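Write out the 3D structure for:
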Amino acid sequence: MSLYAEIIVDNKSTNTDILYTYNIPLKFQENIKVGMRVIVAFGNGNKLLQGIIINIKTTINFSKKKLKDIIEVIDKEAILSKELIELGLWMRKEYLSQYIEVFKTILPTGITKKANQYIYIKDKANIGDIKSKNQIQIINCLNENNGIELERLKKIVEISNINSSLKSLVSKDIIKIEIKIEQDINKKYEKFIIKKFDNKELVKILNKISSNARKQREIILFLKDYKTIKLTNLLKLTNSNHSSIKALENKKILEIKEMEISREVLDKEYIKTENMNLNIEQKNVYEKINYSINNNKNDKFLIHGVTGSGKTEVYLQLIENVIEKNQQAIVLIPEISLTPQTVERFVSRFGKEIAILHSRLSLGERYDEWRKIKTGKVNIAIGARSAVFAPFKNLGIIIIDEEHENSYKSSMNPKYDTIKVAEKRCDLENSILVLGSATPSIESYYLAQKNSYRLLEMNNRANKQELPNVDVIDMRDELEDGNKSIFSNILYNDITKNLRDKRQIILFLNRRGFSSFISCRECGYVEKCPNCDISLTFHKKENWLKCHYCGFAKKPVEKCPECNSKYIKHFGIGTQKVEEMVESTFECANVARMDFDTTGKKNSHEKILNKFKNKEIDILIGTQMISKGLDFPNVLLVGVIAADLTLNLPDYKAPERTFQLLTQVAGRSGRGDEKGNVVVQTYDPSHYSIIYAKSHDYKGFYKEEIKLRETFNYPPFTNIIAIVFSSVNLKILESITKKIAELIMKNIEHKKRSFDFMSNISGPMPSPISKVKNKYRYQMIIKADNEDLNMIKNIIYWVCIKNNYNIPLDKITISIDINPNSIM
């Protein structure tokens, strides 16, 4: 019987973004499955590429003569389930992405296999009759580099049509071509010693060993208590050398064997914890969700629980029930900094049947964690955004903690929304979805109000402690009173008191670096990045000006390049400057900073947090990575240095982000037995986001914000499609962008004459940040209601991706984002 496979080929060209049909040779037909990876010959040059089988069929409606065979099947089992394949196909349409972009996102980084061709000259090859100069050149090269990789051979001999020469040499039995399938990451192996004797034979075996071979006898006695042991451990513990081990192997007393080992992420031991007694609110939430679990209902829940209300304990007990039903659980968390405490909570409860998935792991560690899930060795996956694709076979629940966080939206293609992807996956696998937050996104809370999610509330802290008191300080009044410090009088006094009482303090500022920018007081010149339309941030410790967009760095100037003035100073404030000022103001305090600059190394988050947990740090200064999820009972004071940083951004989500950040960072205070205090410093104390954050009033904020969203037609009342065009050539960018915009609008008008272009389309125009990494940027913003969304996406697809109108798209880059986090 003939079988054919529809395959996604690992090629990023938009012209090849289709499913390709290949013939399945008879030798593969018995074991081949959808979701396996294969090697295929692609294009006119028959380049060997990896592909993923998406569908297998028995008939085709075109000539079989055109088909190529699958060359090799990589996997013994499918690495993608049918549900994950269906999810990927949905994502491609939903986010206007390429097949290969989507499926490389679903699969772990580094497992792509490459088929490399190696050319060998045969031992007894008869080369006397060769007349072709090209073939002689190839043979001469092989005589010096036998077994050379094909791509390297091409570079050395520089023959334009090398394939025909190689084909001829193969037919003459002069050379052979071998295909080797290689992968960036492989399983990790170590040598182990396997004992080959029974302890009952110990005396008999020792009698056979010469009394002079003291080390061999010592090793035998040591192995009495082991069946297997790592070779490196044995050598170290017995202070032996390889020759003694080899001698015992030759005597068949032991065996040296390479065995696969897992790269362990959970290398610590945690004290076992038991389920806590749930309070009334926790129990109510738990029972409602658990009812859906027990009755196999595909329900979606939003838990709106104040900071410290005990959401994590509810998650733990729900997961326990899911596992009892032989199902698995995915837990998503937004920040890498939350991982240590979250992992500790889960491992303490469930042991090591947990896989950890996040970007700070090495490729090898991520590969091993993914394989633990795939092979059924663990039942729980905890991680950031990409963990939503954990390859469980019987998924029972997906929990997304801090669901409002921006990091759940991917900034790389495909620009997917993790919550929407989780919803779709739960639909496909009949699983429960649980979202949790003290400050739900406006969109999620709106859906809960419309009964798309079931809203569950936890309005009190689990320890019955009151929410912290929040003091809002108008920094304009401080200036009028002559206080030019970054600390208001109240914050200074509160820090002093808490240090005296041996309490810990968190200071929050959502900007890293020492100062925002360097400027000339004479002429107003600002030091900007030469590659991006943005000011450089001054980092005092390293004495560098850095661009936080492209990474450009330079030493600060001493004189203004424009007017030669010496009055060139740094303005604004960042976490580095706060750290310096805290250290000089509170000299006896142990101070640490936690931001992108101090947490670049692996496990650096955990080291800082462990020091804070062990009370080795008195004052922790940080950006938004310290604003959520952290639970330290000894923190009774949180200070927000400048609440206006997010508020003043030209983005419709700025008030929401400000409210969320203030509420979340305030929630770090008073999580123990004593009531906490929060000091919020601002120049705009009358803004509604700050007023409602002061009173911990999410519902009040939501009512105010949702009215504005409806008035100005922003999500959740519409969808936003942001198209960003970029090019190194501004004139080309303007010309092509104008043409694309005209075509999109012309097609929309053709489909729907009543479409309101004036209020629903803006641009193309220069982006708010008009240049990044030496590329000029234009943007087009389109608003579309649910009814029109698919129609407009389809038009964008044919104009911007499939290029139906033969626009020179190769001269620009196009980025399409459906409902972006920001329109900056």
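The mean pLDDT is 87.
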